[in-house]
């Protein structure tokens, strides 16, 4: 069994066991809380575990320890590895919370091929013949589910830190706190750009779209997990800087790929309707690059259509064609290649284990050359 397979199995098992352990607590309060456990398990049973993998290989980049089971290492190494698994699991819970809240903000109906959390709670309302608005109930309940997932994530971080010495614990906590801050303000910047773009100078659209990528996605998707894993083992500042130099451009490339999939992705692969970002009016790098090429008349029509939740399949196709014909998709592909090249050059020069470099290179390909 490879290290990455072993890690995935451990994290999957830990997620399942954590939720199973919390379900009796929910039930002891009220049986009506059962959906929190059920919907959390459903959401967390999917996903590629990219953040857990980056956390693990951030740790392995500065550590020679490979977990081989009980008694396969020193007691200290086993304890540190146990903390690592807790931290990897915490990242998956944090990601799940972000997805729940993101789907509410974007009014997304689906996630990973199934109903989004607020739609699941909406069904609870409808099937129970409750009074009031099913939609309002679904949104309010999903907000609380996201908050609960955040609380569980923090609980797991606390469990991890309890296994570390005080220095590693403090630095790891500060890194996790900064990651949460970055994602929160990045999410707001995303909302801000979707609404404020008409009064923002045209010359700033591209830079502002890139800023959203950095803070909403790139840091917490790649950079922070890498640094968290390395911090846990007590990495030097030079090692951390080299991991950041690899992680940030790779995280940007990852989100640029996501933006392309949000417009052109196959719904059977992405688990979300094709063109979903167009209905949501996402002001991405792809959109900024498209608008740079359009005449004033074409730009006006493009802007009127973008963000209309009632866009038909034909209108989605029209917008997709406009974007493709503008050359913007090709320019985003070029940016992805350039960011990946920058990341891989930083990785090659990093003071990290050769095994981790091989695996991190593989991960770089996996997250930027995907169709889902």
Automatic annotation (TrEMBL):
Enzyme Commission designation: 2.5.1.1, 2.5.1.10, 2.5.1.29
CDD domains: Trans_IPPS_HT
One term of GO molecular function: (2E,6E)-farnesyl diphosphate synthase activity
Cofactor(s) recorded in Swiss-Prot or TrEMBL: Mg(2+)
InterPro entries listed in its UniProt record: Isoprenoid_synthase_dom_sf, Polyprenyl_synt, Polyprenyl_synt_CS
Pfam family, one: polyprenyl_synt
Cited Gene3D superfamilies: Farnesyl Diphosphate Synthase
Keywords carried by this UniProt record: Magnesium, Metal-binding, Transferase
Family matches, as SUPFAM superfamilies: Terpenoid synthases
Family to which the UniProt record says this protein belongs: Belongs to the FPP/GGPP synthase family.
Record PANTHER family: GERANYLGERANYL PYROPHOSPHATE SYNTHASE, SHORT CHAIN ISOPRENYL DIPHOSPHATE SYNTHASE
Protein name (database record): Geranylgeranyl diphosphate synthase type I
Annotated source species: Subtercola frigoramans
